[in-house]
Structures are given as structure tokens and as C-alpha cells.
Amino acid sequence: xxxxxxxxxxxxxxxxIFMRNGALKISHGLVCMLLGFYMASTTMAxxxxxxxxxxxxxxxxxxx
Length: 64
What we know:
mainly alpha, 81% helix, 0% strand, DUF2304 domain-containing protein
């Protein structure tokens, strides 16, 4: 578990650096994808899922 969290943090830092540079390339996209897979296997996954579901419900309930 400790290795998984450290990998997630490392990949998160790399993704933030890529996004700040504004030069997201294919290799950067692969790192983002790996970050998603590692985050899905952590204990944060249910919290992230419920947050995304709540956000989607909120956006879906808005009327223009």
C-alpha cells in the first residue's frame, strides 16, 4: 500500500508539471493514464467516485 501511494504521488507531481508547462504530449498522456490506474487501486477510489458522481448529478440538474 505504501508503494502504491508513493507512486500515485510521484505521478501526480509529474502530471502537474506537465500541465503547468502547457506541453502535454503522448508520453505525458500515458503518465496521466497510469496515474488514473494507480489512483483507482488506492483507498481514495470510492471518495473520488462519489465526488465525481455528485458533480455529474449537480451539472445534470442545472437548467439553462
